[in-house]
């Protein structure tokens, strides 16, 4: 027994012990390492002579030398480069499948270093777009349930981290944005050059940029690795059960919560037990509470019942949006409520919303802006929950959209805004040159008298077809009711193929609807007049007194007529302004009233002496008074 123990302590034959000693003190065991390296070189020469026979000594020597970090790094880079070169011209599906099976076996191996290396290789190949398929993603997803913490964290970081696909941005989005901008600029140049139209143009530009940004973010996010998971519901449930029993560090728990919330939000899963778990961490003193707020917002989507999200919403309001909290905590609480309601507005109640909107006049700017952003969100989501004074003026886009209830999903049979295509437009690009520069100067527009009016009549096959400019076409669209727009858009979509230019016109029309205020009075008047004309044509046999007395007058839009109306309304009305306090108008006024009529230069010296003195000035004045008083006593 003593003989066997003495042989185990010999360094040349006990490689694990030598490996441990080299890790602790590498300089003292340089000779032993060089000796083993020479043995490794000799064993390699023997193996090259007959590579088909398994050599156990070579296997032990390789495992001994593989503990070197530089060697492991070199081998990993070599594997990645080799697989990348094999798939450079065309993907070798058979070889890739064999290698993926090998990597999957290595992930379940007992050797932690080998499993971690295989996971790193697969992640790197996915990021280099060599193995960016469904199989690779699901193999990496299986590593999220590893018992080794390093492997689990690396797999979760892969799904949580920034996706490399999102870094590539196409130029088509900027081209579509330029088309919408050109259409808006052209409409503004034909219009009157007023400040109101200029402000409207700026709003159209901002709306177009916002819509294009939303579309670009959505298009980039659609390529995320989270979308390639086979069974996201099962994965989220397993990770939640593991999170409840997890004894890892707080950072690992937060990472697990982040991944679960992303799975719920991306795939619209239903995991009701997750929301009470997040609710336990929503306190101002909680460590990294802002991340927990993000997780709560990520896990919300339109398919979650409002009963599950209402407790989270009330917890945020009660723990953060109170006067006993700091202004930073209040602003964060309102912002997190806004992000949650942006994904599921059905969980908000009118009482809570109206309480939160009262902070729009808060003295802190952050709280004030957060409350105003919440108001602007619900102006588009559900205006009825807001107080009447906070709803704002309704726009044309609000008149088209109808408020949906929870679980309701209305599929449209048309493209909103396609009704603009029923009004034939001119080739404005041939007549108007739009500058791509950012200057706001107006340029001259070369158009005819008919173009300025907005309509041109062209004779084609004996029929007269009206051709509209963009300005006139938008005016005609605004005159239509929501039902008429839907009918026209349905006819257009079902009868023709749409081009890029058509989609650009639709985007411009939708942007104009978001700015144009909704006015039902014009629609009612035009509809009423149309019905009266129809009744007049149908009842020509009987002449009524109403048809005689009905006189259509043109409204007076000139300045003199408006001024006369204003002056006439002031007659018999008390004069606005300061009312004298004394009863007798002939009596003299007080000195205080007389000061108001004097020149400012006469009162400058008096006003200057009334400024509030600083604390230092008061100290000096008190010191001088005390010194003077002491001097007089002497």
Task: Briefly say what this structure is.
The protein is mainly alpha-helical.
Query: Roughly what fraction of the amino acids lie in strands?
Result: under 5%
Query: How many separate helices?
Result: 31
Distance between the termini: 109 Å
**Gross geometry:** extended
Please identify, by name, the CATH architecture of the domain at 225-400.
Alpha Horseshoe
What is the topological layout?
Elements: H1 2-8, H2 15-24, H3 30-49, H4 56-65, H5 69-86, H6 93-107, H7 112-127, H8 134-142, H9 149-160, H10 172-190, H11 195-221, H12 232-244, H13 250-267, H14 274-279, H15 289-298, H16 306-320, H17 327-343, H18 350-356, H19 365-381, H20 396-400, H21 428-431, H22 449-453, E1 455-460, E2 463-468, H23 470-479, H24 482-495, H25 500-515, H26 520-538, H27 545-549, H28 559-570, H29 591-595, H30 600-608, H31 615-633
Antiparallel strand pairs: 1-2
């Amino acid at each position: 027994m003593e003989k066997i123990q003495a042989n185990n302590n010999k360094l040349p034959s006990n490689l694990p012990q030598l490996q441990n000693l080299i890790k602790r003190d590498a300089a003292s065991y340089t000779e032993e390492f060089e000796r083993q390296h020479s043995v490794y070189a000799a064993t390699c020469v023997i193996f090259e002579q007959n590579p088909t026979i398994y050599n156990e000594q070579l296997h032990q020597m390789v495992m001994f030398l593989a503990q070197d970090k530089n060697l492991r790094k070199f081998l990993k880079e070599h594997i990645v480069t080799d697989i990348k070169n094999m798939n450079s011209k065309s993907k070798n599906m058979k070889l890739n499948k064999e290698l993926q099976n090998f990597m999957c076996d290595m992930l379940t191996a007992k050797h932690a270093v080998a499993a971690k290396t295989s996971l790193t290789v697969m992640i790197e190949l996915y990021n280099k777009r060599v193995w960016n398929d469904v199989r690779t993603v699901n193999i990496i997803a299986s590593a999220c349930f590893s018992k080794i913490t390093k492997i689990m964290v690396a797999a979760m970081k892969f799904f949580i981290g920034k996706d490399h696909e999102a870094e590539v941005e196409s130029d088509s989005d900027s081209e579509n944005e330029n088309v919408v901008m050109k259409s808006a600029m052209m409409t503004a140049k034909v219009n009157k050059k007023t400040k109101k139209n200029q402000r409207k143009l700026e709003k159209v530009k901002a709306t177009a940029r916002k819509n294009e940004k939303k579309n670009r973010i959505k298009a980039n996010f659609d390529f995320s690795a989270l979308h390639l998971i086979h069974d996201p519901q099962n994965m989220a449930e397993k990770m939640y059960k593991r999170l409840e029993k997890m004894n890892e560090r707080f950072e690992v728990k937060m990472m697990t919560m982040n991944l679960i919330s992303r799975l719920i939000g991306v795939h619209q899963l239903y995991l009701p037990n997750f929301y009470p778990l997040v609710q336990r961490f929503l306190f101002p003193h909680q460590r990294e509470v802002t991340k927990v707020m993000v997780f709560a917002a990520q896990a919300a989507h339109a398919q979650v019942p409002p009963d599950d999200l209402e407790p989270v919403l009330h917890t945020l309001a009660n723990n953060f949006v109170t006067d006993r909290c700091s202004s930073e905590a209040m602003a964060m609480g309102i912002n997190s409520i806004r992000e949650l309601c942006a994904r599921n507005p059905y969980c908000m109640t009118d009482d809570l919303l109206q309480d939160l909107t009262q902070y729009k006049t808060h003295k802190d700017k952050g709280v004030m802006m957060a409350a105003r952003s919440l108001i602007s969100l619900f102006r588009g989501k559900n205006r009825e929950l807001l107080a009447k004074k906070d709803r704002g003026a309704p726009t044309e886009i609000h008149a088209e959209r109808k408020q949906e209830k929870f679980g309701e999903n209305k599929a449209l049979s048309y493209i909103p805004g396609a009704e603009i295509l029923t009004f034939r437009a001119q080739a404005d690009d041939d007549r108007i040159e739009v500058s791509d520069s950012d200057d706001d100067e107006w340029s001259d527009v070369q158009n005819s008298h008919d173009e300025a009016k907005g309509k041109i009549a062209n004779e084609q096959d004996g029929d007269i077809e009206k051709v509209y400019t963009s300005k006139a076409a938008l005016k005609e669209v605004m005159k239509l009711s929501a039902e008429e727009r839907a009918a026209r858009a349905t006819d257009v979509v079902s009868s023709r193929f749409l081009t890029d230019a058509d989609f650009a016109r639709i985007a411009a029309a939708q942007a104009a609807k978001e700015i144009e205020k909704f006015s039902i009075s014009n629609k009612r008047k035009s509809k009423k007049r149309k019905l009266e004309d129809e009744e007049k044509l149908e009842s020509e046999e009987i002449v009524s007194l109403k048809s005689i007395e009905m006189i259509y007058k043109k409204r007076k839009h000139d300045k003199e007529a408006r001024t006369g109306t204003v002056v006439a309304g002031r007659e018999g009305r008390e004069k606005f302004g300061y009312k004298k306090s004394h009863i007798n108008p002939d009596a003299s006024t007080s000195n205080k009233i007389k000061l108001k009529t004097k020149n400012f230069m006469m009162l400058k010296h008096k006003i200057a002496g009334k400024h509030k003195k600083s604390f230092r000035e008061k100290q000096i004045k008190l010191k001088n008074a005390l010194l003077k008083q002491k001097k007089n006593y002497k």
